[in-house]
Amino acid sequence: MAEPETDISLRAAQVATDVTEAEQPQERRRLASSFARAVSSGARVAGRGTRVVRSGTGTGRSAVRRGANAGTGYLVAQVITMAPRLRVRNQAALQARFPGKAPDEIAGALIDGAARASAAVGGAGGVVSVLPVLPAFPAEVLAETLVVVGIEIKLVAELHEAYGTPASGKFPERMSAYVAAWAHRRGVSMIPGGVIFAAGSPLTRLLRRRLYVRAGRSAFSLGPLLTGAAAGAILNGRETRRLGNNIRNDLRRRAQQT
Predict the structure, then answer these.
(1) Whole domain around residue 161: which residue ranges?
(2) Are 154 and 17 spatial neighbours (Cβ–Cβ below 8 Å)?
(3) Whole-prediction pTM value?
(4) Measured distance CA(187)–CA(77) in Å, rounded
(5) Sign of CA dihedral 112, 113, 114, 116
(6) What total of structural domains would you count in the chain?
(7) Which member of 65, 79, 162, 239 has the lowest number of beta carbons within 10 Å of its beta carbon?
């Protein structure tokens, strides 16, 4: 049975959380592969693989990129819906998970874990594309993009917690701030009135551009045979690590200035 589109953000949040906190590589791969296969299979059964991101006609990487460009508005809505559903560990929980470690050490462990999780998701997407039935590529791109972005937003949130500088407000407001931080590639900036993703605003346009690029990278993991899995794992892990280091360096600078 096809998975309702309204459930995708919830499932992506669950998978992003579980794959990040999984201890063993095989468990990370299992979680990522299970979600990728479920979304791909559901899209084929419903015949809506190209409708999800409005890719139009054609197959292959260029068609996926056109679809990603046209469907970034949909992705923005899904990411905003997904963010408050992520499970984020607070400072006390992180200190319990990494006893005796300084904030920089906890941050390093968080970045390593998120990079491994992101790589596992990219590898899973490539493996699914080996199936003899042509997958609904746009649906797979949607699945991988949402899970990887979920992993990275969770990382952004937990880095702020590790340094004792969480965003202000209730949990949904804090998660909106972390989505903005993910888009800007720096720590949370306090905005009077909170973060609002208004249509056509500079923040929303930036988020759309980030998601377009992210979806384009996801397309590489759907390459032929296992070359896609290898490329997806490398690209995802590298980019997630780069994001984590950018946020960590920004939070360090802010701490030194106070």
Answers:
(1) 5-257
(2) yes
(3) 0.80
(4) 22
(5) positive
(6) 1
(7) 65
